[in-house]
Amino acid sequence: MKQHKPKTFTILLVDDKAENLVSLEHMLEGDHRVILKATSGNEALKTVLRHDDIGLIMLDVQMPEMDGYEVARLLQTNPKTKDISIIFVTAINKEEQYVMRGFEQGAVDYLSKPLDVNVTRAKVTVFEKLYRYQHQLKEAMIEKEKVNKQLERFMYVVAHDLKSPLSGAIGLLALINEDERIQSAPDLKEYMKIVLGATNHLTEMITSMLDYTRQSDMEQTIEEVNVHELVTQLSKLLFPPANIHIETGGTLPVLETNKLKLQQVFQNLISNAIKYNDKKDGLITIGGTDKGEFYEFYVKDNGPGVAKRDTDRIFKLFERLDNEGKGEGSGIGLNIFKLLVEEQGGKVWVESLPGEGSTFYFLWRQRY
Prior knowledge:
The protein has helices at about 20-30, 40-50, 70-75, 95-105, 115-175, 180-185, 185-215, 225-235, 260-275, 335-345; strands spanning about 10-15, 35-40, 55-60, 85-90, 110, 225, 245-250, 255, 280-290, 295-300, 350-355, 355-365.
């Protein structure tokens, strides 16, 4: 496994007395640390602007010309520097009015002179750990965005390749539907109506997928979505076998959300529940609970269930389980489901008992 070199932690020391800077530098030296120094407020501001990777500023409060409070205030007003952590180093008394002024200007902590070596080192170590955690989180978000873009490109290719043959199939079905033998047989006429309706709906979905991959998140339409109607329509269009019954548990909400994304989530879960159900009388129940900012949905089935060791693995890209003759999935569907939910701040999980069935849960934001 590739080992990543730890990111450097850069600390800026600001004090108008050179001896204080030397002492503080010696105190804070360590592996993967870079120490920068400034002897005035103006020099500190110039140093910050020249280095975009400063993780912590140790800022003396009492300095001529520009004190530490003013330096912190100016840093706070600049979008590029407002998130840098600041520890004020001060010899003035610690009365509440002085402490509060420091926090108002952007300080996150205080150290009093004369500095205690152990306390100073411990506090700086805490801020270093926080900085590294934030950096790891940013890297994870960047990697997640790359995966999202890859999946969007995959969706575009699949949707584009499906659209042409599907359009041809619709044209052929329309011609067949005009045949006198179809028109004179009420049952066949009704079946053709259902098939044409389903294929036209699929065409609309593919067109929406193509539109989705061309737009940024900000451009995607947010609309009022009646989840009960959405689930009812999907349940019919997925053509479940006669032995599988789909029902809703209670009233489903009306949300302000992206309809296509929510439709993709439910279609994925319901399709899987139909495809892998191994019972003579299959039952799929869709319901949920209002959790305030989010709505907790579930799709429950009485199918084969998932072994405990697999309940996390099934959400990973290209992970496939043995479905005992039901056919392997692509290993993509549940990963897309997970990404779509997490993309807007929700989360997914599954509870399952082998042989008895599974319940897939997800949190979906109610309003944008």
